């Protein structure tokens, strides 16, 4: 049985910065997907193509619901 991901399992994730209160929770939970920009003082996406499993926790815990899939 092969459990490898195909490109069909990846989705594009983004941060809706207008609602973001810069709590940095996305970075704490997903440092391989989100990082902090010190010069702009806000988070950003470092790897936009992710699986739902990779970002499910932060999507459910973001206080402002800022982490979204682009195709929704």
Structural overview:
- The protein is α+β, with helices and mostly antiparallel strands and 72 residues long.
- It has helices at 25-29, 52-61; strands spanning 11-15, 34-37, 42-45, 49-50, 67-69.
- It is built from two helices and five strands, in the order βαβββαβ.
- The strands form two sheets. A three-stranded antiparallel β-sheet has the order 4-1-5.
CATH topology: Alpha-Beta Plaits
The share of residues in helices is 10-25%
> What's the CATH class label?
Alpha Beta
- Strands of the widest sheet, in order across it, are 4-1-5
Biggest β-sheet description: 3 strands, antiparallel
- Percent of residues in beta strands: 25-35%
Tally of individual helices = 2
Gap between N and C termini: 31 Å
Number of strands: 5
Quickly count the domains.
1
Helices, strands, pairings?
Elements: E1 11-15, H1 25-29, E2 34-37, E3 42-45, E4 49-50, H2 52-61, E5 67-69
What key phrases describe this protein's structure?
72 residues; alpha+beta; Alpha-Beta Plaits; three-stranded antiparallel sheet; two-stranded antiparallel sheet; 5 strands; disordered N terminus
How is this structure best summarized?
The protein is an alpha+beta fold and 72 residues long. The protein has 2 helices and 5 strands. The strands form 2 sheets. Strands 4-1-5 form a 3-stranded antiparallel sheet. It has a two-stranded antiparallel ribbon with strand order 2-3.
